[in-house]
Amino acid sequence: MVDQHTMMLIRLVVGLLITVVALAFAGRRALVLFKLIRTGQPAVDRPQKVDQAVGAEATEVLGQKKLLKWTVPGIAHVFAFWGFLVLGLTILEAFGALFIPDFAVPVIGRWAIVGFLEDLFGVLVLVGIVIFLIIRLLNNPTKEGRKSRFFGSHTGAAWLVLFMIFNVVWTLFLYRGAQWAVTEYNYGLNPSDEHFQQQNFPFYESGGAFFSEWVGNLLYPLGLTANEWIETVGIWLNIGVILVFLVIVLYSKHLHIFMAPINVYFSRRPNGLGPLLPMYSGGEKIDFEDPADDATFGAGRIEDFTWKDMLDLATCTECGRCQSQCPAWNTEKPLSPKLLIMDLRDHLFASAPYLMATAGAGKRDEMGERDEQVLETVGAAVAGEITRPLVGSREGFDLRETDGYDAAGHRSHEGPVIDTDVLWSCTTCGACVEQCPVDIEHIDHIVDMRRNQVMIESEFPTELAGLFKNVEQKGNPWGMNASLRNAWIEEVDFEVPVFGMEGEEVIPDDVEYLFWVGCAGAYEDRAKRTTKAVAELLHTAGVKYMVLGEGETCTGDPARRAGNEFLFQMQGMQNVEMLNEVKAKKIVVTCPHCLNTIGREYPQIGGDYEVVHHTQLLAALVKEGRLTPVAPLTETITYHDPCYLGRHNKVYTPPRELVQSVPGVSYVEMERSGSMSFCCGAGGSRMWMEENLGSRINVNRSDEALGTGAEKIAVGCPFCNVMLNDGVTMRKQEGSARESVEVLDVAALLLDSVRK
């Protein structure tokens, strides 16, 4: 029979040996990851606002805000997340028990509430595991195919992690139950002997640890000696499982357990998706009037990404929430935000030896070149990986329609890392960023690669050439003459003040708003209806406004989303110079893209203005009583959230308030609405590109709107107006939609009711 002293010595030696071996493996991997991410380019202003970063940690990490949008899996993840936070105390208890048989966490270690919470969250983790099992079985990608958000994810690794979590919990309750049984024996054998009153189980007297006590009662009949060995072996198993789990996490997709809080902290936009970042090279903002000779434009190689971009790649959980919301993926296109990040991550990790070797030597390859000496030292596999093109066509490759992945997460690593069809299918709607629980900034990566393709490689969809030419030469994507920007004014029966008509050099002080009409609002027939409606409503409400007329030109938004940063800069600086000259302060727009560009991106180039969307202004005028909807409309109406108004700028309520302010309206939401709204397909310059892959995004969204039974589909964006009109028209021609269904802007709907 082994005495207690010998038992403790064996327990300590084995426990420390397990710990040292596991920490050696974990430490080596952590160091490699740290060095690899440091090879990225500088990330400027991260975090941008510390108070928002801390707030994001509280709401998104501790509060699990984004995950709880997905109620059942979100609750299961809360159980697991908070379970492991609370069970962190049990890890201290397990390691402490290696040294002291009756170890308890100082101060709180014997409180009943602590024991209760440890057991409660241990049980909740088990409940979470069961929920995860059911979710994964119901969404098995081998059965559900692309419909499963786990399509392309490494499901084997996910099952392994669930198994390891289960092992952590059962080994925990095993040794805690044995501890209770040993303590029970000690008290029962000789209650007057202080030696036997040793509380191996910290919560024996205080109670609270209900589940551990239940397990202890099951183990008690085995006897004292058996339970002493079960306790020791259980502690070994628990520590061993935790340490093996640590190593597995560091080598798997579950790296997010450690990376997520860091990534969330350094995210630049905890509120709203925010503007696109300016272009930097080597941490310095590129001066497009005089760029440096060695400036890097966009991301043409994996090492062109910033360390924050690389942190994004390492943080991906493969949960597929981004994929499930992506309009491209949902219309059978090869773009999945998840698979794109996985492509880049796999390429980054496979290229790691080369990247760290060159960074360690203080080298940086010239564009299109690789260091032959370093290539010879890293092996053929790494050399083959690092020399793969970052972007190119995978035409002829297997599974191209699913970004090269099969349901089990396998794919070939031949050919370019990112397929051109993947890169150009993105609408920049932001659904991926909105849903990502670890704040990966997918759009930034996509646009940076587009920038390199356009500005360095001159490789982009042919339709964009016409867009760029029209914006540069005519100042609008349609290629219309500037003289036609005021044509809509001739179609209204009230005065529209145009800047400069009275010889103004600056906007008069009594003018409340500069009405930025926009290119669509001036040239596109359906958008012109919105322009005229807004102008009339402002006139009716007595709001003094002014338009620039021919002084307007394209904001540069479509060029920037398409990767032509130079053209955006040219357009933007021209507009900022003009707006500053006329002393514009408050601007109202009808286009969410103009709202986002003028309000959130022009500050990057010296333009700082108060910009509101017309639905925001009109909603305020209705509340103030300056506009009164009187004519009833006894129809069912649904509203489509424009991506650049909703997700990008968090404007959800005003348009709905306006629709519901009309008497008699029966309002109905689409299934996908608000932050989970589905894109119309026009963003990311997709408005000017043919949609040749899969089904049409606008038709998908139109079908959802028609499915509500609404007679009118309200929108708040000229691009959405065009896309949904086209989708509804297609269904009318097929006979699957009523001829009476109408797509119109919220302003036009309001005007019909305000007019008596």
Number of helices: 30
**Biggest sheet, strands in spatial order?**
6-5-7-8
- Tell me the total number of β-strands: 12
**Low-pLDDT runs:** none
The main sheet comes to:
4 strands, parallel
Distance between the termini: 99 Å
Helix content: 40-55%
Mean pLDDT: 93
- Basic shape: globular
% residues in beta strands: under 5%
Overall structural domain count: 4
Describe this structure in words.
By secondary structure, this protein is mainly alpha-helical. The protein has four domains: 213 residues, no CATH class; 165 residues, no CATH class; 149 residues, no CATH class; 119 residues, Rossmann fold, CATH 3.40.50. It has 30 helices and twelve strands. The strands form four sheets. The protein has a four-stranded parallel beta sheet, with helices on both faces. Helix 29 links the parallel strand 11 and strand 12. Helix 1 runs parallel beside helix 9 and helix 22 crosses helix 30. The protein is globular, with a radius of gyration of 31 Å. The protein starts with a helix and ends with a helix. The mean pLDDT is 93.
Secondary structure elements and pairings:
Blueprint lengths: L3 H35 L11 H13 L8 H16 L1 H12 L12 H27 L2 H4 L10 H35 L20 H10 L4 H27 L5 H11 L13 E2 L2 E2 L21 H9 L5 H5 L11 H14 L1 H9 L11 H7 L1 H7 L4 E2 L25 E2 H5 L6 H5 L6 H16 L4 H13 L38 E4 L1 H6 L1 H17 L3 E3 L9 H5 L3 H17 L4 E4 L2 H10 L8 E4 H10 L12 E4 L13 H9 L4 E2 L29 H11 L4 E4 L2 H17 L7 E4 H9 L2
Parallel strand pairs: 3-4, 5-6, 5-7, 7-8, 9-10, 9-11, 11-12
Antiparallel strand pairs: 1-2
Helix pairs in contact: 1-9, 2-10, 3-5, 4-9, 5-7, 7-8, 7-9, 10-11, 11-13, 22-30, 26-27, 27-30, 28-29
